[in-house]
Amino acid sequence: MKNIIKFLFATIAIMMVWSCEKDEDQAVLSLKSEPNLKASTNTLSLTSANANNNAVTFTITPAEYTPAVEVTNVLQFAVTGTNFASVKEAGLSSGVLSKSYTVIEFNALMLNLGLPTGVASSIDVRLKTTVGKGSPVYSQIQKISVTPYALVSYMYAPGAYQGWNPPTAQALKSATSNGIYIGYINFTSPNSEFKITPMKNWDHSYGTNNNVDLIYDGGGNLKAANAGSQKLTVNTNTNKFTLSPYSWAVIGSATPNGWNDPDTDLVWNSTTEKWEVTVVLTVGEIKFRLNNDWGTNFGDDGNNGTLDAGGANIPISLPGTYKITFDEVNLVYTAVKL
Question: Given 84, 116, 147, which residue is the final one in a domain?
């Protein structure tokens, strides 16, 4: 019996020593010093003339832990007042203690944040530090006043609707070069095929294998299932595209079909960024409407060339051939007798 008791005490003692050794192996990680972030400037007025110059440099002092461990550092950018609900991030490689941006790089980042061009906006920048899957710690916030500039860029959509000729293809516009391009194409027949090109040539193009996802320099032709005017949206951030019916037209007693369907469709001019049509009109009235529906329509209450939502019918006092233009951004129109 005594031997059994001695054996039990010995076993317990060994387990206690082993447990102590395990506790020592699993030392608690403690934060020794907070991360720190400094920006080389707090005011930036960006211009295209200085596109390749240095805009700003961020210098970091990483967080330190006891015992010393490898940390992951990420710069976070957000619009001031949003509490970093929507951020853009830039990771820093191990051992890298600074991050510099040229004017064109930082301008693109600001446009992706949604900042308006030509006016000063405030952004918040902070350093996010993590260890493994642990909770992050953050530096103090650096506030920077930034005035971005407009950086318009284009892509093109050559296809069967225009003879597969890139130089004359409809342009897709990204007003802020944020990777989202929008254009309007009048497809002349159902199942019309096309591709997306970054330039007005066939050097590079985007295709698809499923008519949703874009493949750079690969895949088959994109396809518009329906004929008629459609809005084409290309997102090079996600490499996806969408097509949706989108057409402006004139309708009314002065048009060939009167107040009946089909409307007289306008065609998008990507150069003037207006909708246009040349049409024979009789004495009567016209209005503009979207997608052959009265849900969105415009008239002219003052008969002064300025459009009003749901406004009065526009009078046509002389018969003849007219060139009609419609500017949906500035809400103005012209109807000029040729």
Answer: 147
Task: Pull the structure tokens for residue 165.
Answer: 């000729």
Tell me the β-bridge partners of 78: 124
pTM, two decimals, is 0.61
Question: pLDDT tens, position by position, for the chain (338 residues)?
Answer: 444 444 444 444 444 444 444 444 455 777 888 899 999 999 999 998 888 899 999 999 988 888 878 888 999 999 999 999 999 999 999 889 999 999 989 998 998 899 999 999 999 999 999 887 788 999 999 999 999 998 888 999 999 999 999 999 999 999 877 889 999 999 999 999 999 999 999 999 999 999 999 999 999 999 999 999 999 999 999 999 999 999 999 999 999 999 999 999 999 998 899 999 999 999 999 999 999 999 999 999 999 999 999 999 999 999 999 999 999 999 999 999 99
SS3 of residue 15 by DSSP = helix
Q: Which residues does 225 contact at the CB level (< 8 Å), separation at least 6?
A: 190, 191, 243
Alpha-carbon distances of 94 from 62, 140, 266, 303, rounded to whole Å? 10, 21, 56, 66
Per the structure, the complete domain to which residue 86 belongs is given by: 30-147
Q: How far is CA 88 from its chain centroid? A: 13
Count of domains forming the chain:
3
Residue closest to 227 by CA, chosen among 185, 267, 269, 166 = 185
Helices (H) then strands (E): counts for the chain? 2, 30
Query: How does DSSP assign 119-180, residue by residue?
Result: S-EEEEEEEEEE-TTSPPEE-PPEEEEEE-----EEEEE-BGGGTS-GGGSEEEEETT-SSE
Q: What is the CATH number of the domain that holds 226?
A: 2.60.40.3620
The amino acid sitting at 201 is N
Tell me the two tokens of residue 65: 């832990």
- The answer to whether 88 and 113 are in contact (CB under 8 A) is yes
